[in-house]
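Hi P.,

Sorry for the delay on this. The queue was packed all week, but I finally got your sequence through. Input first:
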Amino acid sequence: MTTNVNRQLRQRAVADSTYKTTNTTNTTNTTLKHAAFRGKTDRVKELVAAGADVNAPDSDGDTPLMLAAAQGHAGIVAVLLRTGADVAARNDKGETALHQAAYAGHTAAVEALLAGGSYVNARDNRGSTALLCAAFGGHADAAMALLASGADINIKNLCGYSALDLAAHKGLDLRGKLLRFEQRG
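Then the structure:
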C-alpha cells in the first residue's frame, strides 16, 4: 500500500509542478528537477527554501542546474547558483551545465553560468568544451559569449575537431564570427 501511495505522489509531483511535497526528501528533489526543467522559478525557490538538494542528480547524473540550463531558464540558473548549486558538477557524459546550455544555444544561461564561475574550457567525456558544443549546434551568440569569456578556440575534441571545424558544417556566419576571434589571438 505504501509503495502505491509513494508512486502516486511521484506521479502527481511530475504531473503538477505546483504540488507541495512534504513526505520525502527524494520526492522533493524530484519535484525540484521538474520545476527547474519546466521553468517554474517560484516553485524552485519554494522547494529550495523547503530544503531540496540543489545538487541531487537524476539517473543520468543531471542536476537541477543542468536541467534548467539545457532548457534556457537563465533566471532559475541564477537562483540555483545563489543557493549553492555546484557549477562544476558533471553528469554521466562528463558534461557540465555550461556544455548543455551551449549545445542548446541558450546564451543567457551560458552567460549566467559563466558569471557564476563555470570553467569555460571544461571538457566532457568526448573531449568537447562548451565552445565545441555551441559550434556543433550552430549557435553563434552562445559561441561569442564563450569566446568573450576566454574559451580556447584551438581545443579539439577526441575526434580531432575544433570549433572552427564544427562551425564549417553549420554555415559561414558562425565560421566568420569565430575566425574574427582566432585572428585576435
